[in-house]
Write a structure and sequence with these properties.
By secondary structure, the protein is an all-alpha fold. 81% of the residues lie in helices and 0% in strands. The protein has four helices and no strands. Helix 1 packs antiparallel against helix 2 and helix 1 packs antiparallel against helix 4. The N and C termini lie close together (10 Å). Bound molecules: protoporphyrin IX containing FE (HEM).
């Protein structure tokens, strides 16, 4: 797809801007939220025994809507490409990304439900790393 500055003024250009803005904003919340929470955790622990749980619940209220927006806008992104003429490598990256996105969602869910500190740490790390991988694969897809 070739793009020119004039496209921005068209309806298609505006829709493309909306689609990508929503996708990237949701990626910022989903990925950035996890890293911000990990970085703030030592400070939050200082606020009391129940503080990490309360913050985790508040974080979940931000993360899951962002994940839903990523999936919806992700399929919207895919619908703008002609898959039959897309290069095999691009399709392979897309399939890899879908697997990584699903793994990230499952890992974050298991992390939230894990009862042991070890389970929380392992699944939290898997969730964050697979989320960053999804971000990198997204940048590759956008070219
Ligand atoms: C954890 C979830 C996800 C993250 C962090 C993520 C992140 C990103 C990022 C950062 C971009 C680059 C945007 C740009 O440079 O303009 C992107 C593009 C893209 N993403 Fe995602 N994404 C996620 C989920 C999905 C899903 C579920 C799908 C497919 C169903 C998808 C399909 C795409 C496609 C096709 C593009 C290229 C868009 C274009 O160039 O028009 N993404 N993604």
């Amino acid at each position: 797809m070739t793009r020119s500055p004039a496209d921005v003024a068209s309806l298609a250009g505006a829709l493309e801007g909306l689609r990508l803005t929503l996708h990237v904003l949701a990626a910022a919340v989903w990925v950035g939220g996890q890293f911000t929470a990990a970085g703030l955790l030592p400070t939050v622990r200082g606020f009391g025994e129940d503080a990490p749980k309360a913050v985790a619940r508040a974080l979940a209220r931000l993360l899951w809507p962002a994940y839903a927006v990523l999936v919806v806008t992700g399929f919207w992104n895919v619908s703008t490409f002609t898959l039959s003429s897309a290069p095999t490598a691009w399709k392979a990256v897309l399939v890899a990304k879908l697997v990584v996105v699903a793994t990230a969602g499952i890992a974050v869910l298991v992390h939230q439900r894990a009862a042991t500190p070890r389970g929380k740490a392992v699944f939290g790390a898997v969730g964050a790393l697979t989320s960053v991988t999804a971000l990198v694969l997204g940048v590759l897809l956008a070219g």
